[in-house]
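Appendix B, Record 12. Input sequence as logged:
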Amino acid sequence: MYWTEIVPALVLGAVVITLPGLAMGAVLGLRGIALVSRAPVFSVAMIGVAAVLEPMLSVPFTPLTIGAGCAVLTVGAWGVLRLVGGRRGRPDGVPAAPLGEQLLVAGAVGVAFIGIFLRVKQGIIVPDALAQLSDVIFHLNTVEYILDTENGSTLTVGASVSPGGAPSVYPAAWHDVHAIVHALSDLPIVASANATVIIVAALGWPLSLLALVWSLRSGEGPPQSSRLSFYAVGGGVAAAASAVAFPSTMLTWGVLYPTMLALALVPAVVAIVIELIRAVRRRQRREITSLTLQALIGASAVALAQPSALVSAAALLLPFLLGSLWAPESRPSPRLRSTAVSLGISLPVVVGLWILVRPPRERWWERGVLGHGETWGPTLQEAHALGDFLTSALGSGSVIWVFAVLTWLGAWACWRRPGSRWLVIAWLFSGFLWMVADSWDFSLARAVLVGPWYNDAFRLAAMTATPAALLAGYGAATIADRAEQLLGRAGPRIPTGWVRGALAAVMLGALLLTSSSRPARDAWGPVSRDYEVHEHSLLLTEDEYTVLEQVPQHVPEDEVILANPWGGGALAYSMVDREVSSRHVSTMVDSLYAPIVEGVGDPAQRDEVCRAVTATGAYWYLDFVDSADMGGAQDEVFAPLVEAAQSGLLDPVVVEGEVGLYRIDFC
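Logged structural output:
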């Protein structure tokens, strides 16, 4: 498949994650850069909420109905603001950005998109390459389930794990967005997944970063008119293309599509909360109403994508909240009282999220004093982890020195400005949490600190990318600012606009080159290894791909395929549209198919087996290999079918090497 073939899907995906949000943002009073930068978080929230509400009204999930649902939600927000009088006059408290700054922002988003796209392209090799990681089975099959059942509700989509699965809660915002892109583009489901990855990582995340850096520019940091803040707006966005930890860690571990979407939205949510706290301090009632609604929408977007990312937002906000305790007023004042009220609400929310939003196995108060943080263990020594964090390598084995030095320079520049110090502390704190996950031994302290992220260093590494990218942007801005000063002193009198435009272009070009440097390409090497197809691929080998492609030619649409999900056969559901006995690696064989799997090789159970085959239509077996050897109990369950295929009891229909499609024809 050629990359040009997914261009329409990329365009459609860009529309999906921006158009609904643009309408909602306009209703909320946002304009200009603030409107565009927050569009993705609003869009994802509305898509996810519409997908939850529509099944309650017997409305099927389709791109058209979800679009209509987003329109209804937008009208509802307009009505709420009309009722309470909360529409904002300006989105950020400053005049509209001049043309030069708008061009800088557009260029920065373009640089980020190109840089991240090129790295993702390098990582996944071809647009229809499958991530050879076990979680991809669930994610692709869930998208197929949403389109089959016309139900994308987070409240019930957990039923996708097996044909007879009971409805259960699972955050489905990623799957809803992917399902819409897939339905509109008509690409193979793997290609539409990769297109969605590119849109979220290369467009959604840079726009979200723009929301945060724009908020910092217009808030209590450097003055709006300063040179540094001008360059930092573009640098903070463009530097995202050089961040090692995101989105690469999400594509080589898991694969963690929902977490990637949630973390991409976190910067915009942080920006909204910061503006809300500032509005409370200033007692701006109309803005408080709009920003409160924006914060609720943003939080719902993250929660519907991956709730653990709410704790990531809390971790990045914590330094800002604690810094706000040191109010400049030395005596009681309305502003000080407003600050106390906002912190009295927000700090308990942060602590509550940290304690409660964690997987059941990480709830230490339920597990007692033993066995803390058993999900994922450490891999590095503390000194190694510290060095990796400071150089932004984060376990990748590759140091992009330009990015690292820019991050240090940006940290120094921000620390000199009291209003921006919290960003430096957020970077250090997120790095500390990553070090805890990747270098501390199992302990209660480790479970308390990093349990919300499953004690997983990959998720925490991805979180550090947001403050690191912004600091690197400030570092690049510091250099551009200094260059402008030197040119103003040494050179002939040149209009300031021309100087800034030229320096901004040089800055963006340098950041784009950094994202394509040899260290940056090396950092994506592990991703490429997880997308390659060969005879030892962990999920689908070359032979298994060949067999799977021929399944539709032999298996009727109303019949079922028995397959060990750890061997990759469960992907027949999403990739070739045939029902399988289990759609997720963690799901054991459904009771409907258990008599077949257990008794297929026992002549004494032949009648019972044939009754089950006839009743379920499970005439087929995909004999794929569990190359990762992680199936455990599943491998044991399917052992009778493996033996039956090898002994000639089953009829071979398509065989390639050691794998094949077999039919149960003795009934």
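The chain is about 65% helix and 5% strand.
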